[in-house]
Amino acid sequence: MTDGAYLYILRCSDGSFYVGTTRSTLEARIAQHNAGTFAGYTETRRPVELVYSEWFDRIADAIESERRIKGWSRAKKLALVRGDLASLQQLAKRRTPHH
Predict the structure, then answer these.
(1) Residue 10 near residue 17, CB atoms below 8 Å
(2) 56 has which bridge partners?
(3) pLDDT digit string (tens) for 84-99?
(4) What is the residue-wise DSSP string for 71-92?
């Protein structure tokens, strides 16, 4: 087994996004979410649909990306899901630093 993991984004039935990581296959993880296996956010927002995934060779990198993306605005997540790198860069520039 490899040390890697998937970062994934699900679109929930209410239109919100859920960001997670898994070492299993994406198909198995989405089936678990849709079966209500995980108590919490997606349990009451089923069905969910995979809208983005990215493989990382190291699980630590996948978890780091998950934490970063969870802090993003909805607009920024949408740009990532669309693969709209230009918008993503513009949205990243607009962010004002917190002091």
Answers:
(1) yes
(2) 5
(3) 999 999 998 865 555 5
(4) TS-HHHHHHHHHT-HHHHHHHH
